[in-house]
Amino acid sequence: MELLFLGTSAGRPVQGRNVTAAALLLPQERGVWLFDCGEGTQHQLMRAGVKLTKLQQIFITHMHGDHTFGLPGLLSTRSSLGTEEPLRLYGPSGLRDWVQRTLALTDTRLGYALEITEVRPGAIYEDERLRVVTDTLEHRVACYGYRIEEKPQRGRLKAELLQGLGVPFGPLYGQLKEGQDVQLPDGLLIRSDDVTEPARSGRIVTILGDTRPCANAVRLAQGADLVVHEATFDAALEDKALAYGHSTTVQAAHTASEAGARRLLLTHFSARFTEADMAQLAEEARALFPATETASDFAVVAVRHANRADA
Amino acid sequence: MELLFLGTSAGRPVQGRNVTAAALLLPQERGVWLFDCGEGTQHQLMRAGVKLTKLQQIFITHMHGDHTFGLPGLLSTRSSLGTEEPLRLYGPSGLRDWVQRTLALTDTRLGYALEITEVRPGAIYEDERLRVVTDTLEHRVACYGYRIEEKPQRGRLKAELLQGLGVPFGPLYGQLKEGQDVQLPDGLLIRSDDVTEPARSGRIVTILGDTRPCANAVRLAQGADLVVHEATFDAALEDKALAYGHSTTVQAAHTASEAGARRLLLTHFSARFTEADMAQLAEEARALFPATETASDFAVVAVRHANRADA
């Protein structure tokens, strides 16, 4: 599971940073989920070599243009590439109206089913492996954060031990891996728990939209392996952050710290900041939450388990 | 007067070619006019070093997304750059509704007046130096072509001759340049026509939207110094061009030839064509209209007078 940053600038694009979008690349080629879709997101995906045909779901945090204006073009291009796979689009109230009117007024016909869900707080998606929970944040318009929870995974089989016990390769391995105890032809009972590594807890990624510091942000980020938090302003501009419904570096760090998160990626930087400012922005946050980095366009961040470095 | 191509791909962006837009750079820093605004046009302008604060007018040929999806972001960024200069936006019916709803639904507030005109055939703009005429084309949706006519300019003063006649530098020069005859203190009558170069006719640039070959395209391009014409397909795909309301290379050349135009720039190439195909596409058109080139992103084309190479 990797997070690919496609845009890390607030409000408008600047040289080297596009407006907001990030792609969650799921393991084992299980597809791509997109979080926000500023103008030019389809261009960034093309540059990064991520095929739009793999895109399965899009989550929009709020309706501001720097998070949405890339949607119509991306939806259209995904269609013109010929895929007929349905696409699910989640976001705030108003999203359906805007997308449907835009497609109609521009005579854009999609060759796949577009399922639009206007979200409310709670669980909004669940499959065998993942669950997505959303809640409201505090911005100038309705805004949501998304928490992606991987379900606990059964541990790996202890292959050497199984060989030593004489378990033949084949269906028995699958049964043991699934948690079933099995009996060998010679009567030996093999308990699944004895031959599998401990179950590992699932990973948690929290991607927050634009927000002032708030309790819901902390709750969404609780124990997360990776938190993506806006840091539109530096610590000196806390008054501006408050006025515009944004956060500073230090406020983002405070939220991550309160939540007991493991790693913080700052993004959505005001256009006033240049590459030369990034070290200082990171430092401000690290004073409170050491595991902080500033995101940059095309950065790929691996989402690691709390207890393993190689996941 | 120069035309800067910002996007030359049809339907969707491809590596090295964005969707449609072109900027007319007016002489003497008189500003920039934009023709169509596919997604990413603001990014292309930024890369080309053209400031959005100089943008005065936008002309949209038709509502298809590859000609319009860059508008909301561009309008928003022009505002966030702080300019309060009004912006005029021209285009087909439906444009006002879409732009206004999009800005409202995304809570985008512009710090300048946006004047939207839904055009009808005829003259839609006129100032001291330029006039813009539009007419309908034949596409799957309502589509317009734009003809930009420079008004005739009085010829330059013959400076050496004036010196020889003893005309003192100053206001008299201005009067002569404006076409007034003047009398010197010694009684000598200087006729304006005798001391100015012949008036030069204004330049004409015609920028056509997506279209099948049609009489209006020929009329709009009549005697133009530069015609920008779509060539979505090559000559072999004439059936597709007909089916989708587009033109082939050869059809574009035929229109330019019928119109007695001086120069043809082909653009809006189907994503099926790569850079390697461009020579062939140009050749197909040149067989009928030799002064043909294929446009590429960031190409700057000077609009020259019929009778002068340096204009």
TrEMBL record, chains A, B:
Source superkingdom: Bacteria
Region forming the signal peptide: none
Pfam families in the record: Anti-Pycsar_Apyc1
Cofactor(s) needed for function: Zn(2+)
Molecular functions per Gene Ontology: 3'-tRNA processing endoribonuclease activity; identical protein binding; zinc ion binding
Catalysed reactions, semicolon-separated: Endonucleolytic cleavage of RNA, removing extra 3' nucleotides from tRNA precursor, generating 3' termini of tRNAs. A 3'-hydroxy group is left at the tRNA terminus and a 5'-phosphoryl group is left at the trailer molecule
Annotated residues for binding of Zn(2+) 2: 66-67, 210, 268
Enzyme Commission number(s) of this protein: 3.1.26.11
Cofactor note: Binds 2 Zn(2+) ions.
CDD domains documented for this protein: RNaseZ_ZiPD-like_MBL-fold
Residues that coordinate or bind Zn(2+) 1: 62, 64, 139, 210
Similarity section: Belongs to the RNase Z family.
Role description: Zinc phosphodiesterase, which displays some tRNA 3'-processing endonuclease activity. Probably involved in tRNA maturation, by removing a 3'-trailer from precursor tRNA.
Quaternary structure and partners: Homodimer.
Name the record gives this protein: Ribonuclease Z
